[in-house]
Write a structure and sequence with these properties.
The complex is a heterodimer.
Chain A: H1 5-14, H2 16-45, E1 46-47, E2 50-51, H3 54-61, H4 63-96, H5 101-111, H6 121-130, H7 135-140, H8 151-176, H9 179-187, H10 192-221, H11 224-229, H12 237-246, H13 251-283, H14 299-328, E3 329-331, E4 335-338, H15 341-348, H16 351-381, H17 387-399, H18 402-412, H19 424-449, H20 452-460, H21 465-494, H22 510-519, H23 523-551
Helix pairs in contact in A: 1-2, 2-13, 2-17, 2-18, 4-8, 4-10, 4-14, 6-14, 8-10, 9-10, 10-13, 12-13, 13-18, 14-23, 15-23, 16-17, 16-19, 16-21, 17-19, 19-21, 20-21, 21-23, 22-23
Chain B: E1 6-17, E2 21-33, E3 38-42, H1 49-57, E4 64-69, E5 72-73, E6 84-87, H2 99-109, H3 114-127, H4 143-155, E7 161-165, H5 173-190, E8 193-198, H6 201-207, E9 210-215, E10 218-223, H7 225-230, H8 235-240, E11 245-255, E12 258-263, E13 266-271, E14 282-287, E15 292-295, E16 303-311, E17 315-322, E18 325-332, E19 345-350, E20 356-359
Parallel strand pairs in B: 3-8, 3-9, 6-7, 7-8
Antiparallel strand pairs in B: 1-2, 1-4, 4-5, 9-10, 11-12, 11-14, 12-13, 14-20, 15-19, 16-17, 16-19, 17-18
Helix pairs in contact in B: 2-3, 2-4, 3-4
Classes of the chains: A mainly alpha, B alpha+beta.
Chain lengths: ~575, ~375
């Protein structure tokens, strides 16, 4: 496309409303995404007013920090591989082995639990089970002084937490592969194993790569799980950065550490964009005419698959049941008498955290939902200069590990000109511009499903572009708005990696209190808080789903399916 | 003098293609549509017919040229200010609105009172044969029904021009024939100026007053179905519309409005459709399969041999070897006793008035 000067100014005159919206959005993107990032880079690279990479080199020469970097990458790789394996196992079982509907609904329900609970919920369950007084290690096996901390428990906990992401990414992709393609290979004389090896798996490779990258970056960014489970023997970068700032009050050191984390994150982000865009060419081969799934797997394999899925599901179910149990007994592992004491504590001493969290969530939800729909609509349907850069910039805060974003916000808004530290505004802004991005993706995905001709039809009937947006486009992307609300709410309730740097005496969050509880080893209240979060998320998602149901349009994708990402 | 309803004046539109570079989707396209006329843009896929239609609708702007509706120039007007009705290939019904709301949409935009809207929607639903469907959603209806709603939505606003973009391509064969008849009858009854895009020549011939054949972004010939069939002006039209035998020949003599052409070792007297016919000139003859009659070999001097016969019920298709050519022949079948079999010697007669002449080397 050749953008001549006349075109540049023409779009402003033609659609002043769009021009205004673009300007306002860029203002916000500049303030809450670019500015903090640049301030952080300045902190890393400016030494007494001069540009210098000395800080980075100091870190890279420190063997302890190098170990942390290596550990981070190693852990992320293992989580990527392991999580993708389990995600594929579940996706393949769901898509190809014809399990009864009730079973697949049950499995879906349980494995989505990790997605809607704080990232360290499974970690609490791990301590309950395998800690020094763990139900399994101490009570069942009688091991004295078992240690739960280290690579393997962190890895296990992160895989359980993140593999549902892989499942959500892989399942639609497997469903999109026309079963007739596999049937065709079968009819040419290939056996089932051969079909799987030569047809199904190769078609899934872009999806598997995508899933690996998603999990890799999720693990790289995870801060809470290693903080609780990794222990001293297995330091990773996000926790090191956190300790540098909260323990040593070394803002610059924390910034430098998180910068080291930034590089692999950005590489993964762009690799993933590449794979995601490739995915559409590879798998969607014309109109999916496959209503006749053939027997992709033999009976034996089907039972093995179902068995494995069932086992994994059971482990997750066990961890959450344990959480619930731990919240209603005096001290799990020691004293199993029923009590509501932990709940009394969280609703008295913890009342402020609950209140603050809910207030912040209540403000973040509508703002984040609106932000997602507006930016998604602008970038997917309108032509204006800087459109592509807007789409990319709007994803930055979402793509970067929370630790980086949190530290960047801390540095940027701690001092004038814009002093927001200690306010609710800074946390709300972080939620809106970090998690609102999922609403952008959902909106774009929905708009891609709505044929352009529907808007043209409205135009041909005489409607202006504003009227077309209000009467046709908006109602059709409303599900994206509500799913955006849901995501922002879930994240407002469960996020910790970024916000832990931004809480203050004035405004604190439940997740931060849980972390404090765990480090003080008061696991009962931590469990009770976690149960409260899961319950609150279920209630709000239930309401949103109810509303969505009323706006359900036949023939369009249901938005709640996209909520997990 | 009858005013022209739609006048397109040498419009062009370029696209940049990743492989082919600059491509003209439409190049110097000019046409005029009379009030109440049904004009079809016909051509193979990628010929520019849809782009031309979308420029007339206002969804795309031509790089050069002008478009007029009556006396009003609309080239720079956006689609919502042109008063057109557009029927999309995929119907583009609003999925979240009921049939009533879909049809009422354009009327609401125009600010009609709700009683008027109620009345108009009822009337148009009667017209397209869907009374009682008001509260249905598009997804609950069959393809044919959705098609009718799309047409109703386009005509209820009483557009100056009604535009169709391959409206029948998503329907099965039987429904396609039924719907094209209905569209044609509706257009006649309302006498709305209509421009229709299709790649199906039979469909074009069935519905149109005039057909405009396009190829590679340009108009190659405009005329009635008979014009295009019997008097094609170039080999593309001759071959695109119907089936054809193209034979090379040489002009032997010119006599008034007929010329004598030496072909297949014989001389045929055919209507003169050339601008300038000279004796000795090389020409191509456009010979339709049904313009050749197979007769008993004793009845005529020109003979051939049947290579194959395909029985199609009321007619039979033959391939006949004649001189150096293999001719396609389509004859009414007159029962088992009178048909020719493979290997039979046959005589050939031509319906000379249906033969068209093209200059050799014409585009």
């Amino acid at each position: 496309m050749v953008a001549t000067e006349t075109k540049q100014s023409a779009w402003v005159r033609k659609d002043p409303a769009v021009a205004l919206a673009v300007l306002v959005i860029w203002g916000f993107l500049g303030l809450f995404i670019l500015f903090p990032l640049l301030r952080m880079l300045a902190e890393v690279f400016l030494q007494d007013g001069r540009v210098s990479a000395a800080g980075v080199f100091t870190i890279l020469q420190d063997p302890n920090q190098l170990i942390a970097l290596r550990n981070s990458l190693w852990l992320a790789t293992l989580v990527g591989v392991g999580g993708t394996f389990f995600g594929f196992l579940f996706a393949f079982t769901a898509a190809r082995s014809r399990i009864p509907t009730w079973l697949s609904v049950a499995i879906d329900g349980v494995i989505l639990l990790p997605l809607i609970s704080p990232p360290f919920t499974t970690a609490i369950g791990m301590i309950f089970s395998f800690g020094p007084r763990g139900l399994i290690t101490y009570h069942l096996l009688g091991i004295q002084g078992a240690t739960v901390y280290g690579l393997w428990s962190t890895l296990f906990s992160e895989i359980v937490t993140y593999f549902p992401i892989a499942y959500l990414a892989l399942k639609p992709m497997l469903l999109a592969i026309d079963p007739n393609i596999e049937g065709m290979a079968l009819s040419l004389g290939a056996g089932r194993t051969r079909v799987f090896r030569t047809i199904t798996l190769p078609l899934c490779i872009p999806g598997l790569a995508n899933s690996f990258l998603l999990l890799f970056s999720a693990s790289l960014a995870d801060f809470a799980t290693p903080l609780i489970l990794a222990g001293n023997s297995f330091p990773v970068l996000p926790t090191q950065a956190y300790l540098q700032i909260t323990g040593l009050f070394d803002l610059k050191g924390g910034a430098v550490l998180s910068f080291v984390l930034l590089v692999p994150s950005l590489i993964v982000f762009f690799l993933q964009r590449y794979w995601v865009s490739r995915r559409f060419y590879v798998t969607i081969t014309g109109k999916g005419a496959g209503q006749t799934p053939f027997d992709s797997v033999s009976t034996l394999v089907r039972w093995i698959l179902v068995g494995l899925c069932f086992l994994t599901t059971f482990v997750i179910f066990y961890l959450y049941a344990l959480l619930l149990f731990g919240s209603i007994v005096r001290a799990l592992g020691a004293n199993h008498t029923f009590t509501l004491e932990h709940y009394r504590i969280i609703f008295t001493e913890g009342k402020k955290a609950i209140q603050d969290t809910l207030i912040i969530a209540a403000f973040s939800m509508p703002l984040g939902g609106l932000y997602g729909v507006i930016v998604g609509y602008l970038t997917a349907r309108k032509q204006f200069p800087t459109r592509l850069s807007m789409e990319i910039v709007s994803m930055i805060n979402y793509a970067l590990p929370g630790t980086i974003v949190g530290i960047a916000y801390l540095i940027a808004f701690n001092s004038p000109p814009i002093e927001l530290a200690g306010t609710a505004t800074i946390i709300i802004a972080l939620y809106v511009f970090r998690y609102g991005a999922t609403g952008i993706r959902t909106t774009i995905a929905m708009l891609q499903q709505i044929d352009r001709s529907i808007e043209e039809a409205s135009e041909s009937l005489g409607a202006t572009s504003a009227m077309t947006f209000r009467r046709i486009t908006l109602p059709l992307i409303l599900p994206a708005f509500f799913s955006g609300l849901g995501v922002v709410f879930i994240r407002s309730m469960t996020a910790i990696s970024a916000t832990i740097f931004l809480v203050s005496i004035n405004w604190t969050l439940i997740t931060v209190r849980i972390l404090e509880n765990i480090t003080e080893l008061s696991l009962g209240p931590a469990a009770a808080f976690s149960v409260f979060i899961v319950a609150a998320v279920f209630v709000v998602l239930g309401i949103i789903n109810g509303v969505l149901h009323r706006f359900r349009t036949p023939g369009l994708i249901s938005a709640e399916r996209m909520m997990g990402g | 003098m009858a005013a022209v309803a739609v006048h397109v004046e040498s419009i062009s539109k370029k696209f940049s293609h990743p492989v082919k570079g600059e491509v003209y989707a439409a190049r110097n396209v000019s046409l005029s549509v009379q009030p109440g006329e049904f004009l079809t843009l016909l051509g193979p896929s990628g010929c520019g017919k849809t782009t031309t239609l979308r420029m007339i609708a206002g969804f795309e702007k031509p790089d050069t040229g002008r478009i007029l509706f009556g006396d009003q120039e609309v080239t720079r007007l956006s689609a919502n200010r042109r008063n057109i009705g557009f029927v999309f290939q995929n119907y583009a019904l609003f999925p979240h609105l009921t049939v009533f709301e879909n049809i009422a949409y354009g009327l609401q935009v125009r600010g009609l009172s709700s009683q008027d809207i109620q009345r108009e929607v009822q009337a148009v639903l009667e017209l397209v044969g869907l009374p009682g469907f008001e509260r249905q959603f598009p997804a609950q209806m069959s393809g044919g029904e959705q098609q009718r709603v799309a047409v109703a939505r386009a005509i209820v606003i009483k557009p100056q021009v009604l535009l169709f973009d391959e409206p029948l391509s998503n329907l099965d064969a039987k429904l396609r024939i039924q719907m094209r008849t209905e569209i044609r009858q509706l257009q006649r009854r309302l006498s709305i100026t209509t421009i229709y895009v299709t790649h199906d020549q039979e469909e074009a011939m069935a519905v149109s007053d005039r057909i405009c054949v396009m190829n590679s972004g340009q108009i190659v010939q405009v005329g009635s179905a008979e014009d295009l069939y019997y008097r094609p002006q170039n080999p593309f039209v001759a071959q695109f519309i119907g089936r054809v035998n193209m034979l090379k020949g040489q002009i032997q003599g010119v006599q008034g409005d007929r010329i004598e052409v030496q072909v297949l070792g014989t001389t045929l007297s055919v209507p003169n459709t050339l601008r300038q016919a000279k004796v000795g000139q090389e020409v191509s003859l456009v010979l339709r399969p049904e313009s050749i009659q197979l007769v008993s070999p004793t009845a005529t001097a020109l003979r051939g041999k049947v290579l194959s016969r395909t029985f199609l019920g009321e007619k039979a298709e033959y391939l006949v070897d004649c001189q150096t050519e293999t001719l396609q022949v389509l004859n009414i079948d007159r029962g088992p006793k009178l048909t020719f079999k493979e290997g039979n010697e046959v005589g050939l007669q031509f319906v000379e008035d249906t033969i068209a002449v093209l200059e050799e080397g014409s585009p």
